[in-house]
Design brief:
Structural class: alpha/beta
Distance between the termini: 38 Å
Organism: Paenibacillus thailandensis
CATH class: Alpha Beta
Strand content: 15-25%
Domain Glucose-methanol-choline oxidoreductase N-terminal: 224-333
Number of strands: 22
Shape: globular
Largest sheet: 8 strands, mixed
Number of domains: 1
Family: Belongs to the GMC oxidoreductase family.
Domain Glucose-methanol-choline oxidoreductase C-terminal: 437-556
Oligomer: single chain
Pfam families: GMC_oxred_C, GMC_oxred_N
Length: 574
């Protein structure tokens, strides 16, 4: 029997970027908030002098314990789903700050095209351009409506970037980034020269790694990036990489109105009469169960956590791929990687062991609908970039194709090419299909005895054609950089959950203006429970050719505004 606690006004489930932003905005407005985080507490002090690649990059110190909580996977409904028992395709964060602690800091606003993708596709190419089975839909919000919330995230995080970029390749900005772009390294300059020679429009990647010291509107001061290369899978010991524990969470805590409970694993939302009444959670160290009544419940977790909680709580209608009805679990999308070209430079060397998570240059000439798709067998596209993340030595040991995997020749080639390789890669979009979805696994359970979340997904012809086309563009760029030898990856087949590809999972509780195909409205308020807000990348109706964090952050600020409106007047916000 769960111990019932005194009722609170607002409970937030998950304290990563979304939970931190919402907690900061609500507490600044004078509201008391209880934040439930299933992992442990974290702060910058935890990472002092801990450049430990083995511990963090290889043994996943900051990630979820898969022996206690994981997902199951299958390609289609005919296959048996099996649990992911070791990390591969994507990484799920754990602890205060969530995935916001171990992200790279690459920051991209989604394109205006993304938010009205179905309408704009049909208007330009006709409805037959959308292939059978692709359940493309608009988001119920426009870029212009969301733009002010992008600005809020950028000013809070201190986003570094170029102020003048071809607006065809990036939506209009009402306010410039608060700090200038990162440094241009020799490899970036080479990419810039090559892309310009091909008639493209390169720009420095926008970055949550500070290019200079910065104090944000809340008075949070942080120092500039040291280019140490320990960003992805690591917490930043300098606080130069924006993450919730050094930006929004301290602001909320300083108000005295945020109560953080760590090791609080929420297992279900309680509800009655079309409204949530609170949540139930388990204290992980003791196994004790608590019921926390609340007036407003905010789900602010990773995609899988949000969707699993809704399904487990029987809140919202589960998606049925056979009939196409229901909404919770619908529109699961991933990120299409695999199109890339690597250059081997026998006569040049680059200091690629220095870098930062968002140090790079990119082009959007082949992203969104920035190019003509009339004769192409795919929609959307991807961001093409050369990034200098810092080639940590355990994770990176690159040799040309045909090199033996061990022995004297392997060692010789490894040493020779250690600083002589560069890569141009693509981060491709992922479109929703009727048979790609999430539901509860009927067999496998987590450590608490609850069903695991199951993913049904595979690459489609859309994805294979996208990779084939964009890989050719990466080859053109790399060859313009004049390496001694170029190797191009130009094909993907069946999706595999084993090799790491991207942590950018989206969908499952998507936003829109039609309750029959969306879980939440454009304030991320549930259609089926007006006092529940489901915030995060779970709201994405598809995944763009970008990292999702900028759009997650903007939607979190909009949701916070919606929650404040709801607290004032109640009812549906649209």
């Amino acid at each position: 029997m769960a111990t019932k606690l005194p009722k609170v006004p607002i409970v937030v489930v998950g304290l990563g970027w979304v939970g931190g932003i919402i907690a900061a905005e609500l507490t600044k407005a004078g509201h008391k908030v209880v934040g439930l985080e299933r992992g442990k507490s974290r702060s910058t002090e935890d990472y002092f002098h801990v450049h430990d690649e083995l511990r963090y990059a290889q043994r996943y110190e900051l990630m979820q314990d898969l022996s206690k909580e994981t997902i199951t996977f299958r390609h289609n409904e005919k296959e048996r789903s099996l649990p992911m028992r070791s990390y591969g395709s994507f990484l799920m964060g754990d602890g205060l700050g969530g995935a916001g602690v171990h992200w790279n800091g690459q920051y991209f606003r989604f394109l205006p095209y993304d938010f009205q993708i179905k309408t704009k596709t049909v208007e330009k190419y006709g409805k037959n351009k959308i292939p059978e089975g692709m359940i493309l839909q608009d988001w119920g919000i426009t870029y212009d409506e969301l733009e002010p919330y992008f600005v809020k995230f950028e000013q809070m995080a201190g986003i570094s970037g170029e102020q003048t970029v071809n607006e065809k390749h990036r939506g209009p900005m009402s306010k410039p980034f608060p700090t200038g772009p990162m440094k241009k390294t020799p490899s970036i300059l080479l990419f810039e020269e090559a892309t310009k020679s091909l008639g493209y429009s390169p720009y420095m990647m926008s970055s949550a790694n500070l290019s200079e010291d910065y104090t944000n509107p809340d008075g949070i001061a942080r120092g500039a990036c040291q280019y140490c290369s320990f960003c992805e899978r690591f917490g930043c010991e300098y606080g130069a990489k924006a993450d919730p524990t050094v930006t929004v969470l301290p602001v909320a805590q300083n108000t005295g109105k945020l109560e953080i409970r760590t090791f609080a694993n929420v297992t279900r939302i309680t509800h009655s009469g079309g409204k949530a009444t609170g949540v139930v959670y388990v204290n992980s160290p003791t196994g004790e169960e608590y019921e926390q009544p609340a007036d407003v419940v905010i789900l602010a977790g990773f995609v899988f956590s949000n969707v699993k909680l809704l399904l487990q709580s029987k809140l919202g209608k589960p998606y049925d791929p056979k009939t196409g009805t229901g909404v919770v679990g619908r529109n699961y999308c991933y990120q299409v990687m695999g199109a890339s070209s690597r250059g081997f430079f026998d006569e040049k060397q680059f200091n690629t062991y220095m870098g930062a998570g968002a140090l790079g240059m990119c082009i959007d000439d082949f992203n969104g609908d920035n190019f003509d798709h009339s004769d192409l067998k795919f929609l959307h596209g991807g961001n093409i970039a050369l990034s200098q993340l810092g080639m940590r030595p355990i994770q990176n040991n690159i040799t040309p194709a045909g090199t033996p995997a061990w022995g004297a020749e392997f060692k010789k080639q490894s040493l020779f090419y250690a600083n002589r390789t560069l890569s141009v890669g693509v981060q491709g979009s992922s479109m929703p299909f009727r048979h790609h979805y999430m539901d509860l696994d009927p067999v496998y359970k987590d450590a608490l005895g609850n069903p695991l979340l199951r993913i049904t997904f595979d690459f489609e012809e859309q994805d294979r054609e996208l990779v084939k086309y964009l890989s050719g563009k990466t080859k053109d760029i790399m060859e313009a950089m004049k390496p001694t030898k170029t190797e191009t990856s130009s094909e993907i087949k069946t999706y595999s959950i084993v090799p790491y590809q991207s942590t950018h999972n989206t969908g499952g509780a998507v936003m829109g203006d039609d309750p029959s195909i969306s879980t939440v409205n454009n304030y991320l308020q549930m259609w089926d429970a007006e006092n529940v807000f489901v915030v995060g990348a779970s709201a994405f109706a598809h995944n763009s050719g970008y990292n999702p964090t900028a759009t997650v952050g903007a939607l979190a600020y909009r949701a916070a505004e919606g929650i404040l409106k709801y607290l004032e007047k109640g009812g549906s916000l649209v």
